[in-house]
Write a structure and sequence with these properties.
The protein is of the alpha+beta class. 18% of the residues lie in helices and 35% in strands.
């Protein structure tokens, strides 16, 4: 589902993308009016996946809308897989409630049993409205579209089915062999016994019979040793096909073996010191919104490689599986985070029970869905919250401990906008800083003193053993706007500022990574309260259609030189 390879060969599945019926419901009265079974006569056609803001008369729509389509099936046990729905989804099958999911950007699935063969109706109520408990908050620095933004699949489940497989491994000191176990999430409509076969590449590593209880269950296999492994690395992104089969079902995924760690205030990948060179990427396009086609994602990866980057930060939410698959294939490291963009939350908001629990569930969901991707080397637990507050400290500690305990071999970080007042640096493996000298305050030359001043604070706090990533910095430029002098909003000023930043950061022993804000211009929300020409955040080193600005070539020259 939503991958660049087939996940199933035995399981029968079909894509439900294409034409659905659609209607808005600003008053939220659709349930009482029977929309769960049939939409009203004024419903129109819409093509899924989509964001509703692409329609001319719905550019600023926020609230409830309904999607519905007919499909045919052989019946039995059906699983409905949604790549992502913005932001809250409730689902009905033939008018009967099936389930719900909160939080956009991550895939989820719902199972229906004992379904008769023939035609049926799937109805989805989608709501992208916001309140004090919303994640993301109503105030974000991007345009928060509503809609079904990634593909929808129907799967027919038979016997014992494999819903998920996590490969947990431990490498030896020489990184030449791995002890691997597999955590499986299984489904069966009845208590059953089945054969289980797990292969890595062309090698069978598990072959046994198991008992499976009715419903959804989880098992962990014994550890097996894989010798002479080919590591996943930025220069050699070796991947292994992981295949799990039962008597009636199968699941295919890919894994890569690699080791990321922090030691001596540096970041090491596969026992080699590495500096992360990248940019922040919103999964957004002026014609598609969040529903970015795989072809656009592939082009973005090609651009990252062309400019010499070795890393991408997914701002500020989990990005499509297809995009992360492409990062796996191309040896680009990835920072994946949940959509807590903290500038909208007050310190008091961070203690709201629903905010805390929703964020925790989003982290767990991101971890479950993206666990096997070797490109993900950083889990991001939040961005720019009130990290100088006690409530911010409590949230950070809770989230850090959750992901550190169960997140696999990844570094844990968060992006702080409060480098000199932040009290949460204990709860991260890498200190990450968002700051904009030369744009919102001071001049670009203030960066020279910043690295000295922050290094002193880092050591004073007792965190001299933690490396630093500059997770956001930059300046806006209007594509095509040039000036003889380096004036703000010109391509020349942006190029000069970013060049100065990355050279200062590269020269600092404290800094082990940099992510330019941002990869490309993107539509933003009017509620942000910042000056945004064209209603866009124009800090991209490419414009929204991926056309390069002068800064792109300046970055390309240096990133390729530092490879």
């Amino acid at each position: 589902m939503n991958r660049i390879f087939d996940e199933h060969f035995l399981r029968r599945s079909c894509c439900l993308d294409g034409t659905w019926r659609f209607v808005t419901d600003k008053e939220g009265v659709g349930e009482e009016r029977g929309y769960t079974a049939a939409l009203p006569d004024n419903a129109r056609s819409i093509i899924i996946p989509t964001v509703i803001g692409r329609d001319k008369d719905l550019l600023t729509y926020e609230g409830v809308c309904w999607f519905q389509r007919r499909f045919s099936t052989r019946g039995g046990t059906l699983r409905f897989c949604f790549g992502a729905v913005m932001t809250e989804a409730k689902v009905w099958l033939d008018g009967s409630y099936l389930g719900e999911h909160y939080g956009g950007f991550c895939e989820f699935s719902l199972i229906a049993e004992n379904i008769e063969a023939g035609e049926h109706t799937l109805t989805v109520r989608v709501d992208n409205s916001s309140d004090l408990d919303s994640i993301p908050h109503a105030k974000v620095d991007w345009y928060h579209h509503g809609g079904i933004i990634r593909s929808v699949y129907l799967e027919e489940l038979e016997g014992v089915c494999v819903l998920r497989c996590h490969a947990d491994y431990k490498l030896n000191d020489a990184l030449t062999e791995a002890e691997v176990s597999f955590k499986l999430k299984l489904y069966s409509a009845t208590d059953a016994r089945t054969s289980l076969t797990v292969t890595l590449g062309d090698k069978t590593v598990i072959s046994k019979s198991i008992n499976v209880e009715k419903g959804v269950s989880e098992i962990e296999t014994e550890r097996v040793t894989i010798e002479d492994i080919a590591l996943w690395d930025i220069d050699a992104p070796n991947l292994y096909t992981l295949s799990v089969k039962t008597d009636t079902d199968d699941l295919t995924d890919r894994i890569g073996f690699r080791y990321i760690e922090v030691k001596n205030a540096k970041i090491y990948l596969n026992n080699r010191e590495i500096e992360l060179h990248g940019a922040n990427r919103h999964e957004d396009h002026p014609d598609w919104g969040f529903a970015v086609p795989a072809q656009i994602s592939r082009k973005d990866v090609e651009i990252f490689r062309d400019m010499g980057a070795n890393a991408v930060r997914g701002s500020h939410y989990p990005q499509s599986r297809a995009f992360v698959d492409l990062l796996d294939e191309n040896g680009l490291m990835f920072w994946s985070e949940i959509p807590i963009w903290g500038c909208g939350f007050t310190a008091e908001d961070l203690a709201r029970p629903l905010v805390l629990s929703r964020g925790l569930e989003m982290l767990r969901e991101m971890r479950e869905v993206y666990y096997n991707h070797p490109s993900i080397v950083i889990w991001g637990i939040h961005n720019e919250i009130e990290s100088a507050s006690e409530n911010g400290l409590a949230m950070t500690k809770l989230y850090y401990e959750e992901m550190k305990k169960n997140g696999g071999n990844r570094l844990i970080s968060y992006a702080s906008r409060m480098p000199f007042t932040d009290i949460c640096f204990e709860y991260c493996d890498v200190i990450s800083i968002n700051y904009y000298y030369g744009w919102y305050e001071a001049t670009m030359r203030a960066w020279d003193n910043f690295v000295i001043k922050f290094d002193a604070r880092r050591k004073e706090l007792g965190f001299g053993n933690k490396p630093v990533i500059m997770s956001e910095f930059g300046a806006a430029a209007i594509y095509g706007h040039h000036a003889f002098e380096a004036l703000k909003w010109s391509e020349e000023y942006q190029a000069e500022l970013i060049t100065h930043c990355i050279e200062v950061f590269h020269a600092s022993p404290m800094i082990c990574g940099m992510f330019i804000w941002q990869f490309c211009d993107m539509l933003t929300a009017k509620e942000v309260g910042l000056s945004r020409a064209r209603h866009y955040n124009n800090k991209g080193i490419l414009n929204e259609y991926r056309k390069p600005k002068s800064a792109y070539f300046a970055v390309k020259e240096r990133y390729n030189k530092w490879k």
